[in-house]
Design goal:
Blueprint lengths: L10 H36 L8 H23 L7 H5 L2 H33 L16 H23 L15
Amino acid sequence: MTDIAGKPPNIATRALSAIAAFCIWIAGVGLVAMTAVVGWQVFGRYVLNSTPTWSEPVTLQLMGWFILLGAAVGVRENFHLGLDLVHHVVPKAVGRLMDMATLVLLIGFGLAMSWYSGLLVVGTWAATLPSLGLPGGFDYLPQAFGGLLISAFAAERLVHVVSGHVPVAAVKTGVELV
């Protein structure tokens, strides 16, 4: 794994690459698990005439995790939803400033999402999710972790944009950080 200049990535890039690969793996497992749970719910409802009460809250938990972990990696790998039309018609220096502004906003958004979700985790921890028997704060953990990851990955990209250093082949998933 090397960057465009042929130098090996630094320890932070390697660590964030490992975290991103782990997030993608967990998101994939979560998607498959959610599909299995929904399949069991449908089977229980229409074949057994007994819908499992735990299936919907488990599905929502899994969905929160795989969506937010995947979104965080999307920020790192720059494959999240974006509108590049203006970026491609402005001078390169203006495009670079636009990238920096976007990344600063993403860092702020991720930190705010993490902070306020953390407050919700703490505020609802004493409640119990009735179908699962878990603390109510579990509902907001994906947002808290996702916000931290979005901020960390956006900060990494900001460092690369500011330094002009663009690492390639960031994670083992085959997705490149550009």
